[in-house]
Amino acid sequence: MASDKYYLGLDVSTQGAKLVLLDYALGRAVFTAAADYDRDLPQYGTRNGACVGLAEGVSESEPGMWLDAVRLLFDRLKESGCDPARVRAVSVSGQQHGLVCLDGSGELARRRGKLWNDVSTAAECAELTAAVGGEAAMLSAVLNTQRPGYTAGKILHFRKHEPEAWRRTATLFLVHNYVNWYLTGGVRVMEPGDVSGMALWNPVAKDWAANVCAAVGPDLIEKLPPVKPADEFIGVLAPELCRRYGFAEDCRVDAGCGDNMYGALGTANVREGVVTVSLGTSGTAYTFSEKPYASPDGDIASFCDSTGHYLALLCVSNLANGYNDILRSLGLTHDGFCALVEKSAPGNGGALLLPWFQGERTPNLPLAAPVTLGFGPGDFTPERLCRAVLEGHVMNLYEGYLKLPIRAERMHLTGGLAKSRAWRRTIADVFEAEVVAVKGEGAALGAAVHAAWVDNKADAAGDLPGFVGRFVEFDEQTRTAPIPGNVKACRDFKKTYLALSKRVRGEAGGEDPFALRRVLTGS
Question: Please, which of 22, 94, 373, 417 could form a disulfide with 279 given CB 3.0 to 4.6 Å?
Fold first, then answer.
């Protein structure tokens, strides 16, 4: 029986936005909606959610597009037949590491917002690292190294190259903070999860790193909103939104969080031993932990989560981009891609691809380009190209996964590519783990579950996994176990890929990829 308690989750991601309406009594979503920026908001002229025609390595969007997407989703909710007046609370998931700049009156001080996959700030990252005394000192300060994806370098780049706009800036927001500001009619706060991905804030000390902030600019701190706990409400929906869309005047907005933190909630990754793999514009693999994990080289991010705990996270910035490009270039559907992949064997006969199409975050190669090995003139066939792209992306993710402090026997998959049997099969065989996709929209569902948790902590009774488990459902038809024969072939392939990656990056001690490749070719 339906209840009078709805909870609404929003996910404002790179290529689109999603809405999930959760019925508390039923324990499931009763309405979902999605907006694709390119298709549904063509006036912004984006491709894959980003502005076109910018310099190499620059990735930006107009923040107004995200607000238009939210309004579009609210319109669809109002038209759905579900009663918005029954929504008790709203929570927002946002793409991490972005940057939105507002002046004192709430207008944009900078027309475009920086996106997480902007890799134009390598020089600023090096400058910040040197300013605090090197990578070890940076790791001590913020538990992370400075990477072009993180927000700190973006802020320094902005201050250096746009001084007049910097002077006008009163508030620096992450993406979900900006959406919260809009929903609440002007509340300016942050929370620990998304903030810990800025590389300005120490997730253990729960405070801004003074030396890193000073290296960005002496007036930085005054432009950063206060950081409030993630498990609290920050305000109520603005009266204008309540009138326009039919929400109750006392509908509350919680602190929100980054998409990875809410992806953890939306995939039941709230106890130690679980790994979530998110397959979207970027690829992530992350695990819940009671204590922070300090990566020795910064390849694994150390973040707070949205529940007062921690999230050890790997992120590769290349994932759906190579896949989407080969679909377009070959005129393939998702099913057509799977059919072509199935015509070739794991290891691809020794034809390998390092899929660093737009620079890479992990490994930290902002200037990288894709590298192939073992392709002769007659090897550029659709089936071999498709398998090379697929295996390259999965292996790029796997190489970083090896640095996580866990080896999982089961993995929870989320994101659009989790629906693909070819991706599930390859991940199961390469990672040597059973995989299963989560039903629904991971981060948007996680946002709705978080709103419900904050509003019903007494019901949770300290059992966060039990509470979250009421709302998360696995798609059993997608459960995929590794095939022993494929695992054996993949082990030879993994050795070759890892050796090639190390050789290209100039790491000492890497094996000879050309010798290892002979095992794959059988020669």
Answer: 417
Check if the beta carbon of residue 91 is closer than 8 Å to that of residue 256: yes
Q: What is the pTM of this model?
A: 0.89
What tokens were used for 137?
């000192």
| CATH entry, 6-255, from 3.30.565.10, 3.30.930.10, 3.30.420.40, 3.90.850.10 | 3.30.420.40
Instruction: Report CA Rg, the chain.
Output: 22
C-beta separation of 397 from 316 below 8 A: yes
Can you tell me whether residue 21 is helix, strand or coil?
strand
* Mean pLDDT along residues 376-405: 95
CA atoms within 13 A of residue 232's CA, in its CB half-sphere = 9
pLDDT digits (tens, 9 = 90+) for 474-506: 999 999 999 999 999 999 999 999 999 999 988
Sign of CA dihedral 101, 106, 108, 113: positive
Task: Decide if 285 contacts 277 (C-beta within 8 A).
Answer: yes
DSSP conformational letter for 362: T
Long-range contacts, stretch 469-475, CB < 8 angstroms, 24+ apart: 469/268, 470/27, 471/22, 471/27, 471/28, 471/445, 472/266, 472/267, 472/268, 472/438, 472/445, 473/28, 473/438, 473/439, 473/440, 474/412, 474/436, 474/437, 474/438, 474/439, 475/436, 475/437, 475/438, 475/439
**Which string of DSSP letters, residue by residue, matches 414-463?**
ESGGGG-HHHHHHHHHHHTSEEEEESS-HHHHHHHHHHHHHHTHHHHTT-
Return d(Cα 125, Cα 463) in angstroms, integer: 40
3-class SS of residue 308: coil
Burial (CB count within 10 angstroms: exposed 0-12, middle 13-18, buried 19+), residue 389: buried
Task: Count CB neighbours of 433 within 10 A.
Answer: 19
Q: Which fold has domain 320-402+495-521?
A: Nucleotidyltransferase; domain 5 (3.30.420)
- Say how many C-beta atoms besides its own lie within 10 A of residue 475's C-beta: 14
Q: Could you give the angle at the alpha carbon of 393 between the alpha carbons of 501 and 386, nearest 5°?
A: 115
Give the separation between CA 450 and CA 64, rounded to whole angstroms.
25
> Cβ neighbours of residue 288 under 8 Å, at least 6 residues apart?
264, 269, 270, 271, 272, 274, 305, 309, 310, 311
pLDDT given at position 126 = 96
What's the chain's length in residues? 523
Residue 266 has pLDDT above 90, yes or no: yes
DSSP 357: B
Calculate the alpha carbon distances from 155 to 37, 152, 225, 234, 264 in Å. 25, 5, 14, 25, 27
Q: How far apart are CA 69 and CA 61, in angstroms?
A: 13
Angle of helix 442-455 relative to helix 259-266, nearest 10 degrees, comes to 80
